[in-house]
Amino acid sequence: MVTEQEVLSETSARMSKSVEALKSDLASVRTGRATPALIENLMADYYGVPTPLSQMAAISVPEARLLMIQPWDKQALKEVEKSILKSELGLVPNNDGTVIRISIPTPTEERRKELVRLVARKVEDAHVAVRNIRRDAVDQIRQMEKSKELSRDDSRLAQEQSQKLTDVHIEQMDAVGRDKEAEVMEV
After folding, report:
1. Which of the listed residues 103, 119, 139 is the one where a domain comes to its end?
2. How far apart are CA 65 and CA 32, in angstroms?
3. What is the residue-averaged pLDDT of the chain?
4. 119-163: per-residue pLDDT in tens?
5. Distance CA 26, CA 172 (A)
């Protein structure tokens, strides 16, 4: 038998994971700054196996607007370059035979506004995920009330607590979104 506290605890954990997922998702949104998170999850064909760049190369940021990728296997250089060109990031790799350098251009005003809309969309998707988690918790609590495991008052209290958890996590997501929007609009 599951208690309402266990339901709320699991709900909080799932909501926290949604906040973390949003943070990692927003890390891949391109700003004017170079960051390894932009490309570390790009998949490159490594001897016939799609592999994330972070597992086949050292990715560093020698300057604020420059990424440097140094594959551990020199034969993978061409595949890494292809994966960057195929990505939707609009980055142009510069291959010198041993490392790949990517210069990160400053986004135009129009592109920054587009990125802000993308950030807002990702934040809203995360809000929906948290609300779905709340709905699952409320359904579980109502089921417990229906099967007489919980009194009506305890059920109402647990539902209110799940709403408070939702509000807290949505506020965290909004803060993450505001930070990312400020970073995107920074010139």
Report:
1. 103
2. 7
3. 87
4. 999 999 999 999 999 999 999 999 999 999 889 999 999 999 999
5. 14
- What does the DSSP 8-state code read for residue 44? E
- Domain of 62? 36-103
CA distance 180 to 182: 5
- pTM (2 d.p.): 0.71
Residue 187 has pLDDT above 70, yes or no: no
How many Cβ atoms sit within 10 Å of the Cβ of residue 64?
9
CA distance 115 to 134: 29
Same-domain pairing of 164 and 118: yes
Q: Dihedral sign for Cα 76, 59, 40, 32, please.
A: negative
CA distance 163 to 174: 16
How many C-beta atoms surround the C-beta of residue 105 within 10 A?
Answer: 13
CA-CA distance, 134 to 165, in Å (whole number)? 8
Q: pLDDT tens digits, residue range 156-186?
A: 999 999 999 999 999 999 999 999 888 888 7
CATH number at residue 13: 1.10.132.20
